[in-house]
Amino acid sequence: MVNPAVSILLPFKDHDHVVGQVCRNLAELFRDRGLAFEIVAVDEGSGDNSHAMLALLRHDIPELRIEVGRGYTSGCASAKAQTLVLVDVDAAGLGVCPSVFASIERVSHGEIEMYLVDEELLVVRTKVVIDLIATTSSWRALSERDLYNRGRERGLVARSYCPNPQSSGTISRILGAISSARSKRSRAFS
Asked: Cα separation of 156 and 137, whole Å?
């Protein structure tokens, strides 16, 4: 595998109903853009079939690695790229919003240190997020928004983009629409 330009960190716990489709969508979106990537799915103690389902997908998605650990902390430790995309498994419609790939480019080139997209995913350099996680005294998992706020408090160059500030969750709704359209399209060609 080519060294990835981006490591997508995807913590999950008991998400067997969505985690497989999320990984498929992420892989398709990044392949369509021609960007070398890896998906690091971090099992945070699932009691369902999430881990087994992802293990089966590794044949179709060679960019997928499965780790067991503590969310973004474990994902950062094993990420191969210097630019990370931190994704909430329930919100993984990224890529449909052009600003996601623009933010990856800006963070990769050092123009900004962190970019929060639609309140649901964070593009950040590996060293930055490791430093932010290391300074937390809480055992609770940090969300993308928590990390973004912590970075701004520390004076990092950070930007936020939400196409519809009235409501977050736009990415999730778009993902649902895309999945529905793809299902209809594949049934039509079957």
From this structure: 20
User: Does pLDDT of 97 surpass 70?
Assistant: no
Angle between helices 126-134 and 71-78 (to 10 degrees): 140
Average pLDDT of the chain to the nearest whole number: 80
**C-alpha pair distances (Å), 58 with each of 2, 8, 20, 160, 182:** 16, 15, 10, 33, 21
CATH architecture of 6-189: Alpha-Beta Complex (3.90)
User: In the beta sheet, which residues pair with residue 84?
Assistant: 7, 124
At residue 2, the pLDDT reads: 72
Q: What is this structure's pTM?
A: 0.80
Helices (H), the chain: 19-33, 50-57, 71-78, 98-108, 126-134, 144-153, 170-189
* Residues sharing a CB contact under 8 Å with residue 120, sequence separation 6 or more, in sequence order: 87, 88, 91, 94, 144, 168, 169, 171, 172
CA angle, 176 then 181 then 184, to 5°: 125
Tell me how far apart the alpha carbons of residues 58 and 41 are, in angstroms, rounded to a whole number: 11
Cβ–Cβ under 8 Å, residues 94 and 23 = no
Cα of first residue to Cα of last residue in the chain, in angstroms, is 32
CB 44 within 8 A of CB 13: yes
